Amino acid sequence: MTLHIPRDEQDASAIIREAAAKRAKLRVSGRDTKAAMGRPVDAQSGISSRELSGVTLYEPAELVISALSGTPVSEVVRTLADKGQELPFEPMDYRPLLGTKGEPTIGAVAAMNISGPRRIMAGAARDSLIGVRFANGQGEVVKSGGRVMKNVTGLDLVKLMAGSWGTLGFLTEVTFKVLPKHERMSTLLLRGLDDKRAIEALSQALGSPYDVTGAAHLPAPDTLGARTLIRLEGFSVSVDYRLGELRRLLKRFGTGDILEGRGAEALWQSVKDATVLQDHAGRSVWRISTAPTKGPDFASHVGRAVDAQWFYDWGGGLLWITTPMAGDLGVTAIREATKAFGGHATLISAPSEIRSALDVFEPQSEAVMQLTRGIKASFDPAGILNPGRMYAGV
């Protein structure tokens, strides 16, 4: 495959204009750490943002940072940490799950709306994304949003680009709102709860006024037993108070232990990056979004049909499920569960030949697909950017 690596936004625009004139399809990428996600793109050429790197604006007092799309996430994180700040949504690192190397880019975080456990409090990546620059499928440079949060009338291109997986435009710069880093992190650990009791406990915690920033349940496939995690962050005196109140609120679920320090940080990183999944290598990995109270029923339905393993994040609203790399990979059971209990299922990890034959994303109704095709056609009339990455023929 011929790979085009633009040096700047104008270069990227010229490459896309030329491809559009020839109707030559382009696979859009950053540094290829997530190339094995989504449907395989049928393209002879690619365009990469890897040389578009660097922080272009950082105003700590205004809590805003802008960076070129190929900037490593680690560079953005370091820059913010030097001023005691962080990305609010705690982006996941897919490398351990996919077995890839290299540096994830901040552009991919925006393009794929990548978020972590703190999403339940701080919102998703799209909620902190306040500005984008990109070249559309005709090579036209588009700027949307800016350096402040504001109400938007009409089509919000910033939010539209978040989660579009490079199918609508080639991002060249992104701007995020950031937050001060928390002084302390503490986790209340409840042991031995089954899935339904655990989700009940997490729901109570999330419904309390104590500003929970992480709520996960890890069932018991190993010797550690079932663990239910409730995270609090903030000023130390505030964390102490909220921990005490949460323990009183949840006393019928057990006394609970308090986890802090590196061990607790490593545990939440394993939740964030889904590495708590046991033996995911050689198995397909699914990401399920559903109503928290429906999560246990969803998992149980799949578990009765196939040899599945799972854990819960976002208070039960996010399930990570692994299924055997055999038969239909649990597709039938998972799609049945989304119809029965509601939600969306995305196939995260599987060989390319399987991803090309299955619906990687939740199938859309014909009415929604018509809207999807219309949006794609308005941004990329020739259909050259990441064709088929999300849905066949789009």
Descriptive account of the structure:
The chain is of the alpha+beta class and 394 residues long. The protein folds into three domains: 2-180, Uridine Diphospho-n-acetylenolpyruvylglucosamine Reductase, domain 3; 184-272, Alpha-Beta Plaits (2-Layer Sandwich); 283-357, Alpha-Beta Plaits (2-Layer Sandwich). Helices cover 32% and strands 25% of the residues. The protein has 14 helices and 18 strands. The chain has helices at 9-22, 73-81, 95-98, 106-111, 119-122, 125-128, 157-161, 195-206, 236-249, 261-272, 295-305, 331-341, 352-357, 366-379; strands spanning 2-4, 26-29, 45-48, 55-59, 64-68, 85-86, 129-136, 141-145, 169-177, 179-180, 184-191, 212-218, 227-234, 257-259, 283-289, 309-313, 318-324, 344-349. The strands form five sheets. Strands 4-5-9-7-8 form a five-stranded antiparallel sheet. A hairpin with an 8-residue loop joins strand 12 (212-218) and strand 13. The two termini are 21 Å apart. The model has no long low-confidence stretch (mean pLDDT 94). Residues 1-181 form the FAD-binding PCMH-type domain. Its cofactor is FAD. One of its GO terms (molecular function) is FAD binding. InterPro entries: FAD-bd_oxidored_4_C, FAD-bd_PCMH, FAD-bd_PCMH-like_sf, FAD-bd_PCMH_sub2, FAD-linked_Oxase-like_C, Oxid_FAD_bind_N, Vanillyl_alc_oxidase_C-sub2. This is FAD-binding protein.
Short description:
By secondary structure, the protein is of the alpha+beta class. Helices cover 32% and strands 25% of the residues.
Salient structural properties:
Alpha-Beta Plaits, 14 helices, 25% strand, FAD-bd_PCMH_sub2, 394 residues, alpha+beta, Uridine Diphospho-n-acetylenolpyruvylglucosamine Reductase, domain 3
